[in-house]
Amino acid sequence: MRDAMTAAAAVFEPEEVVVLAAALRLATSRMHVEDAETKAELARLIHNLGRSRIRLRKLMQTDAHAAEIAGEAAELFAYLEEAPETILAAAREADVSSTRAERIIGAFPTQFRQTPVNRL
Length: 120
What we know:
Number of strands: 0
Largest sheet: none
Shape: globular
Radius of gyration: 16 Å
Structural class: mainly alpha
Order of helices and strands: HHHHH
């Protein structure tokens, strides 16, 4: 979920770009997206899912992979449309260069969380 909302860019191989483009076409047709702004948000979401697949060393080579990415994108997009504004605001404010622990998005704002304690 966090990876779907980050703003960092990734470099894809040409065959991966073809798969991501197919995933975008599938997702827009499944969700009946007409608005240009919504298409741009969906494209960003699919780009981020592709970046996550690279990090997890998952393949992006066939139409089956495109269908899998499109399914994930549709599911996440539906969640993001219903997500509470506090979660979305925390994800938008997260800096790309921040550490992993600071990028965790949860139901409680960071200022209310207790820092870990080393008891040794």
